[in-house]
Design brief:
The chain has 161 residues and is mainly alpha-helical. It has four helices and no strands. It has one domain. The chain is 83% helix and 0% strand. The longest helix is centred in the N-terminal third of the chain and has 48 residues.
Length: 161
């Protein structure tokens, strides 16, 4: 009797382990397919830019690359355990993409107008990155409060012998 209960428990354990393994493999396939879909979309977006000339082509390419980076950051964020950090990366990717497009649009201008345009694009990028940092910090603080932690752990002092 004891042997059969042990056998049943072992069989159930193996079944659960196999199920978990199959789920991991399936999740990896879905993630890989999603990455391939993003890359195919990026390739199509870049192909649309081939018909354009001069700076319009550069702007189009910057938009396509930015869209790809944001999509990949969002995909990576789905499975990340630290959602605050993942969302910060997504916001930063969006800020960088917007900056790259704005900088390309500034290339249509000349002299001081171009310099002012680039400067404004940098300010907006830095403002967006700062907001992403604040949002991530607030999320971390909120998570710490929810788990009962009140402050970050202090570094451990070395013991003197």
């Amino acid at each position: 009797m004891k042997l059969s209960i042990t056998s049943i428990a072992l069989a159930v354990g193996v079944a659960f382990a196999a199920s978990a393994q199959a789920q991991q493999v399936n999740e990896r396939k879905v993630n890989k397919n999603e990455h391939e879909r993003i890359e195919a979309q990026a390739k199509a977006d870049k192909a649309k830019c081939d018909t354009l000339k001069a700076n319009a082509k550069d702007i189009c390419m910057a938009e396509a690359k930015g869209k790809e980076k944001v999509a990949k950051a969002e995909l990576d964020a789905k499975d990340d355990k630290d959602q605050a950090k993942a969302q910060k990366k997504v916001r930063e990717a969006k800020a960088e993409a917007a900056y790259d497009v704005a900088a390309q649009k500034c290339d249509d201008q000349k002299g001081e107008a171009k310099d002012a345009c680039i400067k404004q694009a940098k300010v907006e990028r830095d403002r967006a990155k700062g907001a992403a940092e604040k949002a991530a910090d607030a999320k971390h603080d909120q998570q710490r409060a929810a788990t009962g932690g009140t402050a970050p752990a202090a570094p451990e002092k070395p013991k003197k012998y």
